[in-house]
Amino acid sequence: MKAFGELTKGIIKENPVFVMALGLCPLLATSTSVDNAIGMGAAATFVLICSNIIISLIKNFIPDKIRIPCYILIIASFVTIVDMVMHAYVPELHKNLGIFIPLIVVNCIILGRAEAFAGKHSVGKSILDGIGMGIGFTLAIIIIAIIRELLGSGSIYNIRILPSSYKPMISAILPPGAFFTIALLMGLINFLRSKKHKSGA
Predict the structure, then answer these.
(1) From residue 124, how far is each of 4, 39, 86, 128 by CA, in Å?
(2) Is 159 helix (H, G, I), strand (E, B) or coil?
(3) Residue 96 and residue 185: Cα distance in Å, rounded?
(4) Rounded-to-integer distance, Cα 197 and Cα 162, Å
(5) Are 27 and 141 in contact (CB under 8 A)?
(6) Are 52 and 126 in contact (CB under 8 A)?
(7) Tens of pLDDT along 27-61?
(8) Residue 6 buriedness (CB in 10 A; 0-12 / 13-18 / 19+)
């Protein structure tokens, strides 16, 4: 049961985007389409899981004074792997995501989990934490991308969803559209959480 809790907390209870408001910079920039969202979510999840594993394994050998630089070096190594693999096998997606792939190195979700969790817990728990947080981030960015792409073009994956008479809301795929979408979703989630809390009291 504890393992299940570690796995699911990042999806709902401690969602890095909607609850903790972490990793918003790449989310704002890459949630313009579902393709980009899936790519960024998968890349961040891979780095998160792998860095959590390595940091948890070697945490007792890292001097406290150089803890953060060591974490960043480990994270950067996995980001480099992701960057090279994406460039080789999905060049179009790699081009679309651009600078935001290397910037995964300083993504506060990944560094935050390394510092707050992987550096203090076992490998097993760190893997579950990485998977849960990665899924939570990926789901959040995909939901935001679906809303933005749908409102911005009336279609998803070039499949027309809204009527042909619909006039695309161009602002939805611009940076302000991302802010408004995230704000509305955060407000909705906080409202539902507070309502649940009150009903359970």
Answers:
(1) 12, 26, 28, 6
(2) strand
(3) 25
(4) 36
(5) yes
(6) yes
(7) 888 888 899 999 999 999 999 999 999 999 999 99
(8) buried
